[in-house]
Amino acid sequence: MTDLARNLEKVRHHLDRFTAEGVLNRIAGAAVPAASGASFETRSPVDGACLAQVARSGAEDVDAAARAARDAFPDWRDMPGAKRKALLHRIADAIEARAEEIALVECMDTGQALRFMSKAALRGADNFRFFADQAPTARDGQSLFAPGQINVTSRTPIGPVGVITPWNTPFMLSTWKIAPALAAGCTVVHKPAEFSPLTASLLVEIAEEAGLPPGVWNTVHGFGEDAGRALTEHHEIRAVSFVGESRTGSMIMAQGAPTLKRVHFELGGKNPVIVFADADLERAVDAAVFMIYSLNGERCTSSSRLLVERSIHDEFTARVAERAARIPVGHPLDPDTVIGPLIHPEHEKKVLAYFETAKAEGATIATGGTKPTGEGLEAGCYVTPTLFTGARNDMAIAQEEIFGPVLTAIPFEDEEEALKLANDVPYGLAGYLWTSDLTRALRFSDAMEAGMIWVNAPNVRHLPTPFGGMKASGIGRDGGDWSFDFYMETKNVSFATGEDRIPRLGG
Ligand code: NAD
Fold this sequence. Notes:
Layout: H1 3-21, E1 25-27, E2 30-32, E3 39-43, E4 50-55, H2 59-78, H3 81-97, H4 99-110, H5 114-134, E5 143-146, E6 149-157, E7 161-164, H6 170-184, E8 188-191, H7 198-209, E9 217-219, H8 224-233, E10 239-243, H9 246-256, E11 262-266, E12 272-275, H10 281-293, E13 305-309, H11 310-325, H12 345-361, E14 364-367, E15 386-389, H13 396-399, E16 406-412, H14 415-423, E17 427-428, E18 430-434, H15 438-447, E19 452-455, E20 470-471, E21 474-475, H16 482-487, E22 488-496
Parallel strand pairs: 7-8, 7-10, 8-9, 10-11, 12-13, 12-18, 13-16, 15-16, 18-19
Antiparallel strand pairs: 1-2, 3-4, 5-6, 6-22, 11-21, 14-15, 17-20
The structure holds nicotinamide-adenine-dinucleotide.
């Protein structure tokens, strides 16, 4: 039996349950269908097969979930941090125990390759552990002295919060947003993406089996325009943490305005990898290839623009093209696969349309630019890893987030032009800089408009560091203590230390 056949057999067992029971909401500890009884199909991007019927929730379901989160809030807020820490570690243990199931199901629901999803499931557990350890000190503050007064700050959880997540790596991203909310003492209503709802449903089930009290975490499935919208508009929801497209972020901001919602946005990107001629080119090729062709290129921090110093441009892009052409495209459960099918036929259509745009704009397709052929590939949303060369920064393929395994290369003459190209996009999420000149690295990274920059490295996350973007890529930061700043209110209490004269008015 091949590894693929073995994995297919295993996942069938896990998926059968979803096929039989459907994907239900989780409200106040109970698995429930949408109040209206409505549902929608979720289909696998591998072959279009229906995986399950999913609750299609509306305002009534969101209201029930928000009220459950409100009712559960006081006890959860007041639970000692050490107890919350122990509980969140138990959730991490339970994720690890079911990591294989999570990874296999995630692959079938999203099309992401198993080699990446098995790590993503474990990263979900790491996220819980990291924020669990912070729970006992999350409320701590500072003391600030002034003549005649001592100020004491403290933090308190903001209340029930909404978390809205995208489809690309749904399990890991959900843990990244929900673990800090719970550690801070907030209760949660989660609205997962409609294209990949399965592992969000496993996640909340795992948390409750690990002992999370009912109502602390509620999951409501459905479409953005109804369930998502209702969540952002709900008066009991104090804040919305959102990961998704920039234009959805802007809609959410408008929807949340009447209830003065606090928002945290992690949005799109068009991230440059900038390669100077003095860089370690072996490592730079590895990183450039990895950062666009891993995770199907459906990754907010993918390096989708390759800016290369002209003297090495042709050689460098030839090497990237050669490597891209050899990347295995195939079934996500095949351990050899690097690129699986894109999430959905609609998204596949969008990515394929950029191949035509590139030609119309006068760029060259150095490799890829097609739908792959071969056994099983026609039925899925597959596209070949693609490199565009001969592009200009004002082309749509250099400005717009394609969100697929598609890289646009542009040459630059000198540092000044490289910086101009790097910054000349609406986004400012991440950047990758390759040079052996330390002074240039400092100067360039200081001037780059991006929330996260890696110098001589691909994206390697360190959880205490801030994560987030500038410009159209987001508002706010996650990670370390930054997550708690979002999920908590900071309070200052000022104590008088003397009896300074108070102006006596009217006396
Ligand atoms: P999307 O914006 O279409 O959807 C994201 C979520 O928002 C889904 O759950 C959807 O149902 C919901 N939604 C849609 N309309 C809504 C509305 N009016 N009100 C409330 N909720 C609504 O994004 P997507 O296509 O699922 O994901 C891909 C995008 O996510 C890309 O742009 C990618 O860059 C971005 N992303 C960003 C990060 C980051 O950290 N910056 C990480 C991953 C993905």
